[in-house]
Amino acid sequence: MHISTLAWMTISSWLIAPSAQAADAIFDTMQVEMAPTGELLGSGLDPYNLTVVVLGTDGAPVTGIIGKVKASTGQTGEVSEIGPGLYRLPWTPELVAEPEQVEIRFRGKTLDKQKIDQMWSLTVNPPYGHRVSIAVDPQQLIIGQDSQASLSVQLAGGAAAVRTGADLMFTVNSGTIGTPAPLGDGRYAALYTPPEGGAAHLALIGVADRREPSRTYGHLAIPLAVKSEVVAPSTRGCKVMLTVAGREFGPETTDSRGKARVTIVTPPGIIEAKQTNLECDAAGESTLELSPSEITRVQLMPVHAGLPGDERLQVPVRAFAVTPQGEPDGGADLTFNASHGTISSFRHEGGGVYAAVYTPPVLADVVDATIQAVLTEEGETEVASEVAFKLVPIRPTSLTMTTTPERLAKDDKSLTVQVDVKGPDGSGLAGRDIGLSLAGAKQAGPATDNGDGTYSIELTTTGRGPVEIIAAVKAPAAGNPVRDITAIPTRTRLPVDGLSSSTITILTLDEFGYPVADTDVALSLKSGDGQLPKTARTDATGMTQVTYTASRTPGLVHIELESQNVTRALGIFQLPMDAPDFTLDTGLMMPTEARATAYEQWSPIVTRTVVPRDR
Predict the structure, then answer these.
(1) Cβ(35)–Cβ(571) under 8 Å?
(2) What is the pLDDT of residues 229-260, one digit of tens each?
(3) Is-contact 421 398, C-beta < 8 A?
(4) How many whole angstroms separate alpha carbon 518 and alpha carbon 508?
């Protein structure tokens, strides 16, 4: 978050304290605290950077510690000092199948030879990845006779809580699928309803977890057979039996014209039956041709509800192909088309599953887009399957804010906020939604979009003191589930006065770092005794703000945030106003590169300033 120099000098001058120690000790002993980490996943591959905060009894950061880190499981690296009183402990957890407690031990010495020996117990959860299997009962349906079938979906691997909380979505070319019901331990059930009529064909079903459709997916082909009466020519007095796909029907006796009427069930892809004539002069076997039917053999897997209009993005897209009888087809001639953006040529991943890579275009507005799977067969080309999704505008990369006047006179009752929003290439972004959180003023009207990435907002003061402004540029939600939570505090150090506060901007984000709308967030204090709301809800742009109010107890405050089984954490330090200079850097303490990237992407477009007022 950016804070103007003038505002910093005005409201946070207590942070720029003398480097000398405070007269009285703040803590009984040296403080060695692990910064909040949020959820930790054990994949055996993903590294974490744990941060330890070390303060002396006077609250001054302790520098120059030579230390080592050990873990009861997993690989550790060398400890490094990343800032005054901040030490990074690299650690890669082992692959775990169930939640596991891991002991982390930090040992070292300060420059004045004080020993440090601190241990923490951390919970490591299994990674998110799942294997998906899907089955149907009965395995074949007869159109017009069977009204429903039971689908069962099983997710295996990954964290149990994540398996249980799967959000399944389907693509299907024929019939309908009801809402899936969780049965526990990653099992889900849904009802499939076939069409009421039509020729024999295949119902092709793709399934994916809405939270990660690029990685958690499965597919199924259901044969939809037809029951019909066929005329089998023979001779008078014969009994005729027909064998269709290994199943026998009849025998039926021929009529006076030597024809037998046999009721058969024909699965899709079957174009002939074996005819057996019995108990007559024409006894023997022959082949009876059946009426062929058009069969769709390709189905696209479910895709994300929305994608960012960002040409730096590459998203896997998959389809599966089957033979006319429903078996995997590894030799299909497929291409993929996109209405917007580009898509690569396909590759066969095995089992009839084909994958390509989709790259969105850069967009300024929300656009409805489609991807098609095109099958070429016997020289003819047809669109076999299509999926729709939404493309949302690219996220801004910076927001700067100025005010006129820069300082309020004693009797001023209004001021103008000027906001400048820019994209990745440095150009201004028009048409964006600017949100303001105000203290000491209210918005006099909607923001004026100047068409060049700048916006003007008129404010009316509500008191005779300074005006605090937090400006954020909002981004349209893509419609995907929550995969990350980013919390951006206005202050990471507060005095222990029971009054001072930090405004925390909370963003619920999808796997691409774009907003997830209208989402409940649970908040809790894992350490510290200040005041914090227990719940919050993001708006249509995936954003909300809460206020943490300091207590009168010095120390590290551990704030935990949870939404849709995603857990993140934030640290704020409470110290007396006369304590030595020390500030937590939220971005620096992020435990993974992905979380640090999300924070770096969003913090520049959430900006705070304070406009002072003459007395």
Answers:
(1) yes
(2) 999 999 888 999 999 999 999 999 999 899 99
(3) yes
(4) 9
- Whether the pLDDT of residue 266 is over 60: the answer is yes
pLDDT at 21: 39
Eight-state DSSP code of residue 325: T
Q: Please tell me the predicted confidence (pLDDT) of residue 281.
A: 78
Residue 415 has pLDDT above 50, yes or no: yes
Instruction: Give whole-number Cα distances, 558 to 500, 524, 525, 555, 581, in Å.
Output: 17, 8, 6, 10, 20
Handedness of CA 59, 61, 62, 66 (dihedral sign): positive
Measured CA to CA, the distance from residue 474 to residue 472 in angstroms comes to: 6
| pLDDT band per the 50, 70, 90 thresholds, residue 13 | very low
DSSP class of residue 180 equals -
Read off the pLDDT of residues 100-115 as tens digits, 9 standing for 90 and up.
999 999 999 999 999 9
Residue 322 is given by DSSP the state B
Q: b vs e for 522-537, b when ≥16 Cβ sit within 10 Å of the residue's Cβ?
A: ebebeebebebeeebe
Cα(355)–Cα(301) distance, integer angstroms: 10
The pLDDT > 70 percentage for the chain reads 95
Model pTM?
Answer: 0.79
Give me the sign of the Cα torsion angle 15, 16, 19, 24: negative
> CB of 390 within 8 A of CB of 368?
yes
- Helix %, strand %, coil % of the chain (to 5): 5, 50, 45
Q: What angle do CA 362, 366, 369 make, to 5 degrees?
A: 80
Residue range 166-195, pLDDT digits in tens: 889 999 999 999 999 999 888 999 999 999
Listed residue (571, 577, 570, 576) closest to 556, CA to CA: 571
Q: Using CB atoms within 10 Å of the CB of residue 254, give its burial: 0 to 12 exposed, 13 to 18 middle, 19+ buried.
A: buried
What whole-number distance in Å separates Cα of residue 614 and Cα of residue 407?
7
The whole-number average pLDDT for the span 401-428 is 94
Q: Are 20 and 51 in contact (CB under 8 A)?
A: no
Give, in order, the Cα–Cα distances in Å from 106 to each of 44, 87, 588: 21, 10, 19
Domains of the chain: 2-29+395-611 (2.60.40.10), 130-288 (2.60.40.10), 297-394 (2.60.40.10)
DSSP state of 59: S
Give CA–CA dist 109/114, Å, rounded. Answer: 5
Query: What residues have CB less than 8 Å from 378, skipping those under 6 apart?
Result: none
Give residue 293's pLDDT band: very low, low, confident or very high (50, 70, 90): confident
- Overall average pLDDT of the 105-131 stretch: 91
Distance of CA 611 to the CA centre of its chain: 38
Q: How far apart are CA 441 and CA 415, in angstroms?
A: 9
- Nearest-angstrom CA–CA distance, 162 and 89: 28
Coil vs helix vs strand at 210: coil
Cβ proximity of 489 and 584 under 8 Å: no
* Distances, alpha carbon 233 to alpha carbons 256, 292, 390, in Å: 11, 19, 56
Rounded mean pLDDT of 440-449? 95
Region 415-442: mean pLDDT is 91
Dist. CA 591–CA 580, nearest whole Å: 26
Q: Give the contacts of 5 (CB within 8 A, at least 6 positions apart).
A: none
Per-residue pLDDT tens over the stretch 328-346: 999 999 999 999 999 999 9
